[in-house]
Amino acid sequence: MKRILLIVSGGIAAYKALELVRLATKAGIGVTAVLTAAGEKFVTPLSLQALTGGKVYQDLFSLTDESEMGHIELSRAADLVVIAPATANILAKLVAGLADDLASTLALATDKPVLVAPAMNVRMWEHAATRANMAVLQQRGVLVVPPDEGAMACGEFGPGRLAEPPAILAAIEAALNDGPLKGKHAIVTSGPTHEPIDPVRYLANRSSGKQGHAIAAALAALGARVTLISGPVSLPDPFGMVVVKVETAREMHAAVRNALPADIAVCAAAVADWHVAPAAQKLKKHGSATPPTLALSENPDILAEISKPGTRRPALVIGFAAETENLAAHATDKRARKHCDWIVANDVSGTGIMGGDENEVLLITGAGTESWPRMGKTRLAQKLADKIKEFFA
Ligand SMILES: Cc1cc2nc3c(=O)[nH]c(=O)nc-3n(C[C@H](O)[C@H](O)[C@H](O)COP(=O)(O)O)c2cc1C
C-alpha cells in the first residue's frame, strides 16, 4: 500500500483536508497526518485521527512520539509528503529551510518527493514574496497543485482557493505512480514562444501547446517525473508535474538547461527561430516617416544543443518538425542536422492541425518512418509515450 504523509497547515481550507483524507483512503492510499499548531485551530486532531485511522502527529518534542517513531523516520516512512492546504507561511519556511516545528522539520528531513497545494488570500498568493517562493520551490522539483480562482472565504475574489480534493488526489496518484517510466525524468517543451518587439507587441506562432501538454500528461501517467516547460498557452497546468512557464525562446533555453539532467527530452514547443531587440517604449506610428524595420537575430537552438553528445545528453531526444511542404524530406533532414533520435513530423499547411485537437504525423526514428493516421492529440501523446516506454524496456 502506498502511503502519504499529509501535513495540514493553518489555513481556512484545512477542513478540505478531511475530504482529501477520505478520498485518498478510499483510493487505497494510506495517510499519516501531521497538524501544525495553526492547523489545529481549524481542524481537530480527533477528526483527522478518525479519518486516517492512525495517530496524528503534532509535536516535535513529544517523548512518546519520538520513542514510537522518530521524526526522521516519520519523514521517510511515506512515499510522498503532501502539504494541503499549504499556507504562505509554510511555503516560505520550505524555501528558507526553516525547521522550527514538526511539520517544517519533516519537510526538510524527508528524502521523498514533496507536493504542495497552496491556499491563501489572493493578495498573499500574488505577493512578490509568495511568487518568488513558488518559483524557487518549483525549480527544486516540488510538485504544485495550484490554487483555484474564485470567491474566497475572506470575501475577496481571485486565485488562492485550495484546489478541490479530487484534483489534489489526482496529483497524488500521479506522483505515486509506479508505471513503467518510474525513475525516469522527462523534459517536455510545449507551446509557442513570444518574442517582444516593444512593451506591447510580440512575434509569435499558432502553437496551442495542446500536443506538448498531452505528451507531458501521457509520460506522467506512465510514471515518469515530468518537467513541462511551456510558452504562453491558455491551457490549465497538468497535475503531477513541475510546470515552468516561460515567454521567450531564450527563457525556454535557460529553463531546459536548468531542468537537465533528464532521460527523455521531447521538444514539442514551436520555438521562434529569431528574436528582435525590443524597443524600450511602444513604437509609434504617428510621426515616423517610414514603418520600423525589425532586425532579426537568431535564437539558441534548443533541440540541437540538447542532442549534442555529452554526459548531460538525455538517452532519448525527440524533436518536432512542423512543415508546410516536403514533410518527410525536410523532417529527415532536420533529424540529421540536429542529431536528435526521433522526429515527429507534422504537416501544418492549413489543415487545422496547429491549434486544433487532432494531429497526423510521421514518426522518423533510426529504424525507419512510421505514418500515423489522423487522431486526437491525447491519443497521439499516449501512442508516443508507449513508444518511449518500449525504447526503455
Ligand atoms: C481565520 C484565519 C484564516 C487564515 N487562513 C489562511 C490561509 O488560508 N492561508 C494562509 O496562508 N494563512 C492563513 N492564515 C494565517 C496562518 O494561519 C498563519 O500564517 C499561521 O502562522 C500559519 O502557520 P502554519 O503555516 O504553521 O500552519 C489564517 C489565519 C486566520 C486567523
Describe it for me?
Helix 4 (71-77) crosses helix 6 and helix 10 packs across helix 14 (377-392). The chain is of the alpha/beta class and 393 residues long. It has helices spanning 15-26, 45-52, 63-68, 71-77, 88-96, 102-109, 122-126, 128-139, 165-176, 210-221, 249-259, 302-307, 327-338, 377-392, and strands at 3-8, 30-35, 56-57, 80-86, 114-118, 143-144, 148-151, 157-161, 185-190, 195-196, 202-203, 225-230, 242-245, 264-267, 274-276, 296-298, 316-323, 342-347, 358-365, 368-376. The protein has 14 helices and 20 strands. An eight-stranded mixed β-sheet has the order 13-12-9-14-17-18-19-20, with helices on both faces. The mean pLDDT is 93. The chain has two domains: 3-176, Flavin prenyltransferase-like (Rossmann fold, 3-Layer(aba) Sandwich); 185-392, Rossmann fold (3-Layer(aba) Sandwich), CATH 3.40.50. Strand 1 (3-8), helix 1 and strand 2 (30-35) form a beta-alpha-beta unit. The relative contact order is 0.09. Bound molecules: flavin mononucleotide. Residues 9-13, 36, 38-39, 87-90, 119-120, 124 line the site of flavin mononucleotide.
Give a short overview:
Helices cover 35% and strands 25% of the residues. It is of the alpha/beta class and 393 residues long.
Radius of gyration over C-alpha positions, nearest whole angstrom: 23 Å
> What are the segments in which pLDDT stays under 50 over at least 5 consecutive residues?
none
How much helical structure, as a percent, in the residues?
25-40%
Number of domains: 2
Question: Which class best fits the helix and strand makeup?
Answer: alpha/beta
